[in-house]
Amino acid sequence: MPGVVEWLDEGDAADIQFAGQPSAARAALEGGGDGVDVVVQPIEGREKRLLVADMDSTMITVECIDELADYAGLKPQIAEITEAAMRGELDFAAALDARVALLRGLDAGAIDRCRDERVRLMPGAVTLVRTMRARGATTVLVSGGFTAFADPVGAQIGFDRVIANQLIVADGALTGTVAKPIVDSATKERTLRDARAALALADAATLAVGDGANDLAMINIAGLGVAYHAKPIVAAAAGARIDHNDLTALLWAQGIRRRDWASG
């Protein structure tokens, strides 16, 4: 049964103390009304010292490869493959190779155009990352997308480190290939493990967030693994999910009030 209720930010976010099994608490609270996100976790140690985050459809609002494909007139075809891969129906690396191969010959200038015209930051991304960094956390952006997008996005948001795939360009055009090894699910999991070890952190001090099947491995080993507006397979498997709010909900989940958020 629920105990003490304390507002973090009145009308927007509250702490509700529960005794008993987390699964029972989550089930009870999720039935409390539409538009409410619920994160069930221990009170102790909920502020995290490491954030590892996906980029496409998590830190930004689009899937970059789908938008880039639009400049080649191939968006529907490539977006269909992307969606299947994010649902976990296709091997991620093979699906990436197949999609990139379709872009062979595309003028490399389309990358800059796509980034400028299509890529927008997810609401709350800057506030989340800059607040966590200001409070001493380390932040890593690890993407199955491309460095041409991830590097500037990571810099704009304020990540400490960026890891992503590299599109190969020759003579001013895409070659239809991506540098190996591919950044995939295993890379994301390894990134979290390695960063956690390098920082000498407990498992509980880590936070991972993503939306696709290739994010599940890192989500499953994080102290707080969050499915953010995620595909059904991810939302069902993650310990926590955000379906309604923006990324600042991950600050409330850590007990950080709005008055303590860094300026976005």
Walk me through the structure.
This protein is of the alpha/beta class and 264 residues long. Helix content is 38%, strand content 21%.
Summarize the structure.
This protein has helices spanning 22-30, 64-70, 75-86, 92-102, 109-118, 125-134, 147-157, 185-198, 216-221, 232-237, 249-252, and strands spanning 2-9, 13-18, 50-53, 138-146, 161-165, 167-170, 173-178, 206-210, 224-228, 240-242.
Give the topology.
Layout: E1 2-9, E2 13-18, H1 22-30, E3 50-53, H2 64-70, H3 75-86, H4 92-102, H5 109-118, H6 125-134, E4 138-146, H7 147-157, E5 161-165, E6 167-170, E7 173-178, H8 185-198, E8 206-210, H9 216-221, E9 224-228, H10 232-237, E10 240-242, H11 249-252
Parallel strand pairs: 3-4, 3-8, 4-5, 8-9, 9-10
Antiparallel strand pairs: 1-2, 6-7
Helix pairs in contact: 2-3, 3-4
